Amino acid sequence: MKRLPGIDWDTGGNVMIEGKKVNRIMINGQDFIAGDVKTALRNLPADIIDKVQVIDDYGDKARLTGVKSGDAEKVLNLVLKKEKHNGGIANLEAGAGDQGKFVGTLF
Fold it and tell me: How many CB atoms lie within 10 A of CB 15?
C-alpha cells in the first residue's frame, strides 16, 4: 500500500487519501473489520489483492436517493484475485478467572 500513488500514511500509522483518513475497508464490496484499517492491512497478504479502489461514500441516504450531499468518507475496496476467493477468517478469544468465571468470543 505504501507504494501506491495518492495513498499516504500519517505519523500515527493511519491511511490518508487526499488528506482524509480512511475509516473503512471493504473486500469485494463488503465491509471488512470496520474501524480498524491498520489491523486489516497488516493481516491481509499482498498476493491476494488484484485491485485497490478508492470509493467516496456519501452514506446510505445517498445510495438510496442518488443525491450526494456533505463530505464523502474515503473507503478502500480491495478486489481479490479470482483464484484467492476461497478461505476464511477467524478470531478466537478466551479468558478464565477465579471462582469459575470465564469469557469467550468467536468471530
Answer: 21
